[in-house]
Known about the structure:
Elements: H1 14-25, H2 27-47, H3 57-78, H4 82-98
Helix pairs in contact: 2-4
Amino acid sequence: MVITSETPPEGVDRERHELARQVTDTFPDWAFRFLSQTFTFIQNLSSNPQHEDDGNKGDSESKTSEYFFHCTLEVFFMQLGPQLYASALQKVANFCFTNFL
């Protein structure tokens, strides 16, 4: 395991601190990949319109997917730090302004 020159907080084991740093270093990449997949999901939803029939099984599945999607994104954005939040918000804004759904 590689130990960085960064000093961990007092009382924290250096190896555990380095491991945590290494794991969280990849989070921004994961967050942007997650947003890209989210945009693909949105585009696929808009290209496959559901029928307006209330008794349709597809309509129920669509509502469940939309609810789950909304909750997931809410938790995702709540967990981002200020810099990553601003970058992710910019990515969402770019998607919204460059796509007609």
